[in-house]
Amino acid sequence: MADRHLIDVHVLLVRDDDVLLTRRRDPNPLFDGLWHLPSGKLDAGESVLDAAIREAEEEVGVHLNPADLRLVHTLHVNGSGPEPRLGLFFEARHWTGTPTNREPDKCSAVRWFPLDNLPDRLIDYPAAGIHAYRAAATFSTRGWARQPVKL
C-alpha cells in the first residue's frame, strides 16, 4: 500500500439544479469519454481553496472567489488509483466568466446536467461525491475493508 494519500479537490459548479461536468479525453480507455467534475490534485504548498480556484480556471475558465466556495463533502477513497485519496468537494453557486472547455487535449465536452439526472457514464469516484452532496452527507468512505461510513 502507498505511504501517502493524495488530496483531490472537486468543484461542483451549480446553476439552479444543474451541475457542470466535463467529458474526459484520456489515453486510458477505462476513463476516455466518461464525465467528471472539474477537479485536480493539490499542489505542494497550495491551500485547498487555491487548488479549487485554480482547477476551475484551468479546466473551465471560470473565476471563483474563495468566499463563494463551500466544502460540501469529504470522501476518503481507496482503489480509485494507485494511491488512496481524500477528495474534497466544494460547491460554488457564484463565479465570473462563462464555462468553456479550456483543456481540449484533456476534455472533449463541457455540459450542464440536472443533479437528479446525471449521465450514466460518470466516473465512480466523483459520482459518489455528487450523490453524497445531494443526500447532504458531509463525509463518506469508499473502497476500504470496513463498512462505508456516511455522516
What's the structural blueprint in terms of helices and strands?
Blueprint: E1 6-15, E2 18-24, E3 35-36, E4 39-41, H1 48-60, E5 69-77, E6 85-92, E7 107-114, H2 124-134, E8 139-142
Parallel strand pairs: 1-6, 5-8
Antiparallel strand pairs: 1-2, 1-4, 2-3, 2-7, 5-6
Describe the 3D structure:
The protein has 151 residues and is α+β, with helices and mostly antiparallel strands. It has one domain: Nucleoside Triphosphate Pyrophosphohydrolase (Alpha-Beta Complex). 16% of the residues lie in helices and 34% in strands. The protein has 2 helices and 8 strands, in the order E-E-E-E-H-E-E-E-H-E. Strands 1, 2, 3, 4, 5, 6, 7 and 8 form an 8-stranded mixed sheet that branches. It is globular. The two termini are 26 Å apart. The model has no long low-confidence stretch (mean pLDDT 93). Residues 4-138 form the Nudix hydrolase domain. Belongs to the Nudix hydrolase family. Its cofactor is Mg(2+).
Quick overview of this protein structure:
The chain is α+β, with helices and mostly antiparallel strands. It has helices at 48-60, 124-134; strands at residues 6-15, 18-24, 35-36, 39-41, 69-77, 85-92, 107-114, 139-142. The relative contact order is 0.25.
Output mean pLDDT: 93
Order of helices and strands: EEEEHEEEHE
- Structural domain tally: 1
How many helices? Answer: 2
CATH class: Alpha Beta
Tell me how many strands there are.
Answer: 8
- Our Rg estimate from Cα atoms comes to 15 Å
CATH superfamily: Nucleoside Triphosphate Pyrophosphohydrolase
Structural class: alpha+beta
The helix content, as a percent range, equals 10-25%
What's the N-to-C terminus distance?
26 Å
CATH topology: Nucleoside Triphosphate Pyrophosphohydrolase
Shape: globular
**Quick one: biggest sheet?**
8 strands, mixed
Low-confidence region ranges: none
Amount of beta strand:
25-35%
Q: What is the name of the CATH architecture? A: Alpha-Beta Complex
